Amino acid sequence: MFRLKKLDLVYKAKKGNGKAFTKLIDENLKSMYRVGKEILKEEDDIEDAIQNTILKAYSNIKSLKNDELFKTWLIKILINECNKIYNFNKKCISLDKVVEEQYKDKYEDFDLKIAVDSLPEDLKLVITLFYFEDLRISEISDIIGIPEGTVKSRLSRAKSKIAESMNGKEIV
Q1: Which residues, by range, are in coiled-coil regions (predicted)?
Q2: Mind listing the pLDDT tens digit for each residue in 91-125?
Q3: SS3 letters for the chain?
Q4: For domain 105-165, is the CATH number 1.10.10.10?
Q5: pTM
């Protein structure tokens, strides 16, 4: 009885019945997920593979020759989709990795960086804008909204504090 009901759903789906197709997919979704999880590790990739499988199955269900093999046919499509994603991911470098490497601060571990990070916020901001962002004193004054003389005095105090924390090494 159960087998006949499935065959009836497949028959209806092949005739264009969307509800029958959806029911078939719902009945096989857990299996699809388990198979996808074995090939792909990332949830987003698994979801993409399942979504692509559903679209392909829906588009090509009329080409299914043996209605009894619907699940096998569906899983075969899924495996092909998973393999495409897996192979694509092998060839690609994550954009996050590229951005991280491209913008990684090469001076991250230096004493200077540690010394700058230990400054009070108002001094750290002025030092960062002047030395690391190459802004002029007038630009810093406009950005922060303080007089140029205050920017200069903060730069001077910041340099002194950095020199102290770096044991007297001079900062230009």
Answers
A1: none
A2: 876 666 655 555 555 555 567 777 888 888 889 88
A3: CHHHHHHHHHHHHHCCCHHHHHHHHHHHHHHHHHHHHHHCCCHHHHHHHHHHHHHHHHHHHHHCCCHHHHHHHHHHHHHHHHHHHHHHHHHCCCHHHHHHHHCCCCCCCCHHHHHHHCCCHHHHHHHHHHHHCCCCHHHHHHHHCCCHHHHHHHHHHHHHHHHHHCCCCCCC
A4: yes
A5: 0.54
